[in-house]
């Protein structure tokens, strides 16, 4: 049997230094606030393109408390305006849990409209718009 001698390449002192970066930089990422009280800081998003229900609802508006992970699932229509969503928000969330300090939401046009921003500015709620890229 013939023995082959293979030469190994020298290993660098820090193996991580030769790895390629496949992710974007995290230098602009800001951590969320420390949670202190329930329903003080919430997140919200839509589940869309669902089959129509009995009252022609085709979307579910999901509102989640970040501290205790309690959620409200509100059936809505995809065509609801920002004004209608704000009325529903006050009726279902604010009356039960009070006004939130901050809300994390995505870049949906209903959330980024001038009316929605003015509505929350009047209530004293800070809107934190999340980015589209989530590593």
From TrEMBL:
InterPro entries: Integrase_cat-core, RNaseH-like_sf, RNaseH_sf. Residues 27-135 form the Integrase catalytic domain. GO terms for molecular function: nucleic acid binding. GO terms for biological process: DNA integration. Transmembrane segments: none annotated. PANTHER family: RNA-DIRECTED DNA POLYMERASE, ZINC KNUCKLE (CCHC-TYPE) FAMILY PROTEIN. This is Integrase catalytic domain-containing protein.
